[in-house]
């Protein structure tokens, strides 16, 4: 069993609303850039970026370099201009250098930045955790732990200097806690707040410190971490509470998020309504077939072909599965074209939940409120995975993305269909264990082959698991132990099968050829279609 993480938000698992193609390597990269911009205090004029491990192999296909630079230029995770960030930096005479290290033993999602402005410079080390989550680990040799979820003040200088102002900060009503770190020459204090500190506190710093010796970092999210202790930390705990108090699973999800983020139930439901609207929008835009794919490895019209074949009566699997597959592919074709999607739990698996939910809710005329309840439950079960296991292909294979997405979809669908909490948990377990061991082996690097079609398989798996659970079929291995098994397989999966292009389909003769051709096009400034 792995160590339990602090409570993470439902919106960290079903979210962010972002520009594709990768939540870890695009949205996460943008957030790392945004934090770097705040740490610098201004837009850098020179940027050096170092990618490690799998990122060193796939950063171009995931637009990670564009993402980091976009964040450093102040763009948000859902900004359509992320795709052209490198060109925009060139237009502004911002120099950008990229280096790679495929042999390092560092976390393969590590991004290091050396940033310069006319007045200062900084070395920043960060990790994309998965699903768009980030962790800033080091600033100029100071060990830190910054996730972009709190108002934070950074102060540094000679040992003892910061103490002069800390007393004023400690008396601020929003003050929560502080830590400190030494780089061997100076000391940095990291002060955390529950909300924006008072103007008086910030003014006291301006009087005592040069502007270069403190930074106020604003959170990147519109929901903050209010209570790090999760309301529920296992599926068993959730089911026990439902049985004890008579609450429903959607109510349990709202209790969890309200405790974690301090949001009222109405706000939580409103945010999920916005998420559902964005999911449907990603389907509608993708299924038209006008998809300008980042890698150009596919034509971008497969969802349209699937829908047309169903309309003409040429398919055998029925409306729910056929349309679910078509719509899952459509959302992924939007994602691969750097369209606006919802990571669930990642951008590489963003088609599964909307594909399943849209086709079933249409078939059975489920209300928007019922769909929202399904999303709440899907997100709660996703959270119970993500607090213990990575939801990143680079860290745990595609079982961490399509596998978790399919299990989330199965659980949410069972809820919408009127299943009991036990049946919902069984749908989750049956779905997840069916995809244990699924490797992450992208061809050439872009989030296209086989990622898009694997979303279709996630749809079929979710539907089958849900129906089995509603029929009373159970997983002999309990749901929490299925998560244990996921963690075990993640740890055993070799590096070559975790988003590196070095194994599986990425290492086939065709995969190697396509990578060579695609990188050649990229070197000429044309990463899209040949």
Report on this model:
The protein has 530 residues and is α+β, with helices and mostly antiparallel strands. Helices cover 47% and strands 14% of the residues. It contains 20 helices and 12 strands. The strands form 3 sheets. The protein has a 6-stranded mixed sheet with strand order 3-2-4-5-6-7. Strands 9-10-8-11 form a 4-stranded antiparallel sheet, with helices on one face. Helix 14 (368-386) packs across helix 16 (402-416) and helix 17 runs antiparallel to helix 18 (451-470). The mean pLDDT is 94.
Number of discrete helical segments: 20
> Residue-averaged pLDDT, rounded?
94
Output the strand order for the largest sheet: 3-2-4-5-6-7
Beta-strand proportion: 5-15%
What is the overall silhouette? globular
How far apart the termini lie comes to: 47 Å
The secondary-structure class comes to alpha+beta
User: How many β-strands, per DSSP?
Assistant: 12
* Helical amount: 40-55%
Poorly predicted runs = none
**If you compute it from the alpha carbons, what radius of gyration comes out, rounded to the nearest whole angstrom?**
23 Å
Largest sheet: 6 strands, mixed
Oligomer designation: single chain
Short description:
This protein is α+β, with helices and mostly antiparallel strands and 530 residues long.
Secondary-structure map:
Layout: H1 10-13, E1 17-19, H2 23-40, E2 46-52, H3 53-58, H4 64-72, H5 85-91, E3 95-101, E4 110-116, E5 121-130, E6 133-139, E7 142-146, E8 151-157, H6 163-170, E9 175-182, E10 187-193, H7 199-208, E11 214-217, H8 235-245, H9 249-261, H10 265-286, H11 302-311, H12 319-336, E12 340-342, H13 352-364, H14 368-386, H15 393-396, H16 402-416, H17 421-434, H18 451-470, H19 479-492, H20 509-523
